[in-house]
Write a structure and sequence with these properties.
Length: 92
């Protein structure tokens, strides 16, 4: 998947947020910052296939979510298969 727009300087980083605040990650958690910038780079057309883990548990507490993109929660062993299925469905 190509990036939404090439980022050459700090001024090219999109201002809009695709990873919403209000998650329950620990203060200063590096994963939250990584997800925030990753979602800015991927843009609004990205579909997130997420296996169970710290990021999944802390960003999808019922009834809220921190994701503004479509996402699906998966088991560890089938995350790759589901992601390739999503890609095949989009290309079809």
């Amino acid at each position: 998947m190509a990036l939404a727009k090439p980022v050459r300087t700090v001024w090219d980083i999109p201002r809009g947020e695709r990873f919403a605040p209000g998650h329950s990650m620990c203060q200063g958690c590096g994963a939250a910052l990584i997800m925030r910038h990753l979602m800015k780079a991927l843009g609004r057309d990205a579909i997130i296939a997420m296996a169970t883990g710290c990021v999944e548990v802390t960003t999808t507490l019922f009834p809220r979510t921190s994701w503004k993109n479509p996402w699906i929660h998966l088991a560890f062993e089938n995350a790759g298969a589901v992601a390739s299925g999503i890609e095949a469905a989009i290309k079809a």
